[in-house]
Amino acid sequence: MFESLSDRLQNIIRTTSGQSKLTDENMQEAFREIRRAFLEADVSLKVVKAFISNIREKAEGQEVLKSVSPTQQLIKIVNDEMIELLGGENKPINLEGNPAMVMMLGLQGSGKTTSAAKLAVKLVKDGKKPLLVACDVYRPAAITQLKTLGEQIGVEVFTIDGSNDVVGIVENARNYALEKGYDVMIIDTAGRLQIDTPMMAELLLIDRTFRPSEKLLVIDSMIGQEAVNVAQNFDEQLEITGMILTKLDGDSRGGAALSVVYSTGKPIKFTGMGEKIDALDVFYPDRMTQRILGMGDIVSLVEKAQENFDEEQAKELERKMRKNEFTLDDFMKLQKQLKMLGSFGSILNMLPIPGLDKDTKDLIANQGEKQIKRIESCINSMTKEERQNPDKINISRKTRISNGSGIPLEEVSAFLKQFQMMRQMMQGMSKMSSTMKKNPIAARNMMRGMMKQAKHGAKAKKKKRR
Fold it and tell me: Distances in Å between the alpha carbon of 448 and those of 221, 262, 432?
């Protein structure tokens, strides 16, 4: 997401370096390039004009502070405007009511039903007890899909077989929720291939009868500029409270996200970043802006670590690291936990690595994933004793491991040497927090080490190509 825009903006910002002042003359080319970058990212012309006008007004004539370069000053200006363009600040989901009602809206195929299930998963993690309500009475496949997802995530789905009375379904679901102690109802409404009068009439009926605390419009970010029309139409009819953008991981341009907020004035509350049932992220304008400008998103990375790292296991790993008892079995456990943070590429995007273009980043991510798989293959070819006591692995054992894993002998030796160095490094971190859940620095350092190795591989590949 935003990859093309991110690359272009970072390149534009670099061109301002060496200037003593941000002037109309030296900013004209930057403004032209920013305009092109936004238009290529599928941002609407109206939004582009407003953005350029705002940054021009703030940038022109500003004296550069002695301690701040023009590049840093332009980054600050663009950063602030991008945050405003994306909604200013995070708007948490409103769960007022007993039970709270969240109405899911959207066109057919936007990912509405899947997003309803993903939202239920997130609410369960937050200590809520959600009830999914099937109100797509015109498409039996949607009800079946919701039931299947409900079984998969362990959340009950309320349905009334054969009923087309959506108000009656919601009314009965509310009574059931009160009886069974559910505190949130997620109402999956019917979608259409296009917005029509009967569709809106039905949604308005639910809205005016029950006054849900949230009316979340689910938009497929892959539809580009059409997303603006969809968002505006729904907002005019129903006064939506927020949006969920799906398939953002498949859209490298990201213009829809920038355009829908500006055109409706309504916040993006969640983003869908993958097919996994827990792949729904809270949207933070400031964090997204930092990613676009190449400043990373360490806060989100740490939060993901806190969600996914097993506290007891983390304590035990920390103890072993401190006492230099960290084994290759422990390394594999840590790898498993790191995988729960997301793909190598997604973690790479959260780390602050300015100046890294998309092609190099993709190459590093690809090489990193391959390297991890090779390391796992190498460890899986070891005996239990060797994994517990890597110091005992002599040349004959290395040869056997190499033959068993298909990894060259020199790579096996190099990995074991790196592992010993890593153990020494970890032992020196005895003052770090007692749990990796609170401070997953060790995990991040390991990832950086693997990234460095992957980057060398990527550079070598580039040289070969030349």
Answer: 31, 37, 17
The distance from CA 127 to its chain's CA centroid, rounded to whole angstroms, is 22
Name the residue ranges covered by the structural domains of the chain: 3-85, 100-293, 300-465
**Cα angle 443, 446, 448; round to 5:** 110
- In the Cβ-directed half-sphere of 325, how many Cα atoms lie within 13 Å? 7
Cβ count near 164 (within 10 Å): 10
Q: Is 310 buried (19+), middle (13-18) or exposed (0-12) by CB count in 10 A?
A: middle
Among 156, 248, 177, 166, residue whose Cα is nearest residue 204 = 166
Q: At how many degrees (to 10) do helices 358-380 and 395-405 cross?
A: 120
Residue 433: pLDDT band with limits 50, 70, 90:
very low
Contact 89, 286 (CB under 8 A): yes
CA angle, 60 then 61 then 67, to 5°: 105
Fold (CATH) for 100-293? Rossmann fold (3.40.50)
- The CATH number assigned to the domain with range 3-85 reads 1.20.120.140
- Find how far residue 160's CA is from the centre of its chain: 35
Helix axes 70-85, 45-59, angle to 10 degrees: 140
Model confidence pLDDT, tens digit, residues 321-368: 777 778 888 888 777 776 666 666 666 666 655 555 556 666 666 677
DSSP string, 70-81: HHHHHHHHHHHH
Length of the chain, in residues: 466
Per-residue pLDDT, averaged over 207-211, amounts to 93
Query: What SS3 class is residue 272?
Result: strand
Instruction: Say whether the peptide bond before residue 99 is cis (omega within 30 degrees of 0).
Output: yes
Segment 278-332, tens digit of pLDDT: 778 888 888 888 777 765 555 556 666 666 666 676 677 777 777 777 888 888 8
In this structure, are strands 268-272 and 280-282 parallel, antiparallel, or unpaired? antiparallel
Phi and psi, residue 309, nearest 5°:
-80, 130
- On whether the CB atoms of residues 214 and 107 are closer than 8 A, the answer is no
Class for domain 300-465, per CATH?
mainly alpha
Q: Where are the beta strands (DSSP E) in 304-373?
A: none
Alpha helices for 239-297 (secondary structure H): 255-264, 285-292
Q: Which two tokens stand for residue 183?
A: 């505190």
Question: Phi and psi (nearest 5°) for 326?
Answer: -70, 120
Burial environment of residue 417 by CB neighbours within 10 A (0 to 12, 13 to 18, 19 or more): exposed
Backbone angles phi, psi at 110, to 5 degrees: -80, -15
User: What pTM was computed for the model?
Assistant: 0.65
Name the residue type at position 414: A
